[in-house]
Write a structure and sequence with these properties.
Elements: H1 25-34, E1 39-46, E2 49-65, E3 67-85, H2 91-108, E4 115-125, H3 131-138, E5 143-145, E6 153-162, E7 167-170, H4 177-180, H5 193-200
Parallel strand pairs: 3-4, 4-6
Antiparallel strand pairs: 1-2, 2-3, 5-6, 6-7
């Protein structure tokens, strides 16, 4: 075995990222599931609203020519995750979140040859999910090529969850959805950082 790899015999020696504590038990448990993939913030202000949880995942990819210093083909991929809890959500509310995602792309992202993808995922926690919201989210897709794909793409995703009813609906690009279904066990072989990375770099 190479000397560059150190085995950890005691679980107490594992360094965990610093994660805020949420008074909202459900959101706090979700944060435990995603804390190794996302940098997390609490009560994050964006535009005229404050999100209970904000997470940012950044992935950088590059090809190497014999040595890391001789790298080329750099690509960057990011996901911005926004979580809020509300007493009710309508299709109009979700449409406003989609508009916010497009606005944030214009404000936060400068597309170029090294930009591969940027995702804005909005998750709303509610007591119950209406049939109209179910249908809207399940059929929602908003993927936008930049300069015919030469500058990558960006995507807006939606997720609505009712912990009390153990119901969740997510658009097809919301890869983080499994982390919100606390009533289901996450299967290691189908999720996790490597799985998220693989899906982020799918064409």
């Amino acid at each position: 075995m190479s000397g560059d790899v150190e085995a950890v015999d005691d679980v107490d020696e594992v360094e965990y990222p610093e994660v805020p504590d949420w008074d909202d038990e459900y959101v706090d448990r979700v944060s435990d599931r995603i804390m190794f993939n996302y940098d997390l913030e609490q009560d994050h202000p964006v535009a005229d609203r404050t999100f209970t949880l904000y997470g940012r995942m950044t992935i950088e990819s590059a090809k190497e020519f014999f040595h890391p210093a001789l790298s080329y083909g750099q690509h960057g991929s990011e996901e911005h995750l926004f979580v809020e809890r509300t007493d009710d959500v309508t299709v109009a509310d979700l449409e406003r979140l989609v508009e916010l995602g497009h606005d944030l792309f214009e404000q936060w992202v400068t597309p170029d040859e090294e930009h591969f993808s940027t995702d804005f995922t909005f998750a709303v926690v509610v007591p119950e999910i209406s049939e109209a919201v179910q249908e809207f989210v399940a059929g929602f897709e908003d993927r936008n090529l930049l300069k015919y794909g030469y500058y990558g793409h960006y995507e807006v995703n939606l997720l609505v969850v009712s912990p009390a009813e153990e119901e969740l609906v997510a658009s097809s690009g919301a890869d983080v959805a499994d982390a919100f279904a606390l009533w289901d066990r996450i299967e290691r072989e189908k999720t996790g950082l490597l799985g998220l990375i693989a899906r982020r770099f799918q064409v």
